[in-house]
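Hey, I'm writing a tutorial for new members on how sequence and structure tokens pair up, and I'd like a real worked example in the thread rather than a made-up one. If someone can provide the structure for the chain below, I'll link this post from the tutorial.
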Amino acid sequence: MTTTHPTPRTGKQWLRRGAAAVALAAVLGGIAAPAALAAPATTGATTAGAAASARGALISVAPLATLGRDQVAAELTAFGMDAGTVRHGISAYRLTYATVDPRGRPTTATGLLVLPRGGPHRLDLVSDTHGTVPTRDDAPSGGAGYNRITPYLHASAGRAVAAPDYLGLGGGPGSHPYMDTRSSVTASVDMLKASRAAAEQLGRPLTRDVYATGFSQGGQVAMALGRELSRGRDGFRLRALAPMAGPHDLTGTEFPGITDGRVAPASAVFYLSYFLTAQNRLHPLYGDPAEVFRAPYAQTVEGLFDGNHRPEEIVGALPATPQELLTPEWAEKVRSPRGTLRAVIEANDGFCDWKPAVPVRLYAGSGDTDVPIANARSCAADLARHGVRAKVVDQGADADHTATAVRSAPQAVRWFDSVRRSPSGG
């Protein structure tokens, strides 16, 4: 990893598990998580009756962790992250709540609620949507690591944080519908509702104001969530958008980058495998894995993304390049998408094509070979066509995917502070 922030190996491993390049880092080491962020036991299964509750209904609250201010600062520093915005300790909880699956059927999901220990009685809320994870326990409420670090960062600055696990991750049933952005948005909106109810129960009621951020997959979800919140439903008021390294342009940047080398080959293999197998559960992309994946991968690839395999297992079972993974027909389809594949990509694209009435900043790194910075620039161009000026904050040519997250998150906290003081965002 190229970064100017020296990070312990534990920090690197966790960071990348929470980042879109999750699987690659896990190969580099098997270091255990520091005890301060280890995941305590969580609540048991929910009932069928609870699943039928209204969307966003709070089912349960389970305490996960309590850290003092110095402990939070130490955890951030261990990741090479700027701890200058830490003002409070934090308390973290796993929420279980009612939501709907991609077909609109009742289900349940889990997520992480983090509250500052101190600060104002009524709290503004940050929605922090996480990057790609293949393993249930790597979601924010399920375990330790980067997907808790950024919620801790925002909460320690004095805001409540709602970090959804998405469907099929954490304690949610079923498989994760990876990159089905609309269901990630419904789960995120419903997590905001559940967080409002839980915060009230915990004696820290929330204001209407929501600041939306997220990294990698979560950066795209943040933009789509912002559009949903802008419609004025559910009693929330969007205040600012700060996506970090989001794949905002699947059609024009991310998928072409897989075939032209802008996306690193090993990362491309991971993303393609996860995307195609997850989307095939929702749409008829293929009938037999052998149509898409070469032998011997056709026999095993679907089972790797069952939510139970560790990242290092997945990477170890996959080839190094897309050419080794895909059949010739599907290599051509990925190079020039058509038919159902094209429709699926387009259905999960274009979430910057609207007019936010709030300030927007797009964080990215020109050294990122997982989500190339052209994604952010394309998003800014889409917004500009609607008359919205969104600054692209480039973390530099030495900022890979991980370093982009490490540098961007504290900057987003400070920017949210400035937006709260001045709605123009400074």
